[in-house]
Amino acid sequence: MDNPIIVGAQFCSPLQVQLTVAKHIMDFNHGQLVISDSCGNALFKLYQTKVLLRELTVVQDGDDCPVVSIQKKSISFHDTYQVYNKDTSERLFSVKDKHMRDKASETFEIELEDDLQPTFEVKGDFVRRNYKIIYRGSVVVAEVQQGHMSLYSEVTGKRKYGVVIPPKIDQAFVAAVVIIMEAIHNEGKERSGNYRDSSDSDSDH
What we know:
Layout: E1 17-23, E2 33-36, E3 42-46, E4 57-61, E5 66-72, E6 80-85, E7 91-97, E8 105-112, E9 120-125, E10 130-135, E11 139-145, H1 151-156, E12 161-165, H2 171-192
Antiparallel strand pairs: 1-2, 1-12, 2-3, 3-4, 4-5, 5-6, 6-7, 7-8, 8-9, 9-10, 10-11, 11-12
C-alpha cells in the first residue's frame, strides 16, 4: 500500500498498531489529551483543558518535543483546520468540512499541501467516535472505535476510545486528524450549550 508519509517516517510502524485516546485521566499522563500505545506509553499529547484549536495548538510527543501544530482557520467558508510541521509555519495539510452538515455524521476532506485535490476523507459518526480515515476513496488508513478499552480505562473506570492503524501508516498524521475531530466534537457541544470540560466522561455515548 503506497501511502504518503506526511509528518515523518519515524512515526510509521511495520506492524498494525492500536492506540488509545484518553482525555485528562491522571496526572501521570502529563497532558490533558493523550494518545498512547497498547503498553500505555504516551505517543502524542496536548496541554489543554479544552480541545478547541482556535489558537495555534502544538501537539507534542512523549518527550515533550513538538510534532505538529494545528489551528482553525479564522475566516473560511468551510470549517477548515490547518496542520503545520512541528511549531513552524511549514503547512503539511488541511482538514475541511466537505458538506457543512450536522456534525453527527458527515465527511471531511484532507488536502495535502502539495496536492490539488483531496487525498484523504474522514467519514463516520464523530459524536460516537466511530469513523474512518480513507485514502484515495477506498483504503482505510485508520479506524476509530468507541468500544475500545485500555489499561487507562481499567485504572480510572472511564470509557475511552481507540484507533486501529494498519502497518506503514504515519501515526502522527492520524493523531492530528483525531485531535481535529475531537475539537470539532467539542465545538459542537459548546454551540449546543452542552460543553462542560474535555475531562468529562462523554454523556452523549
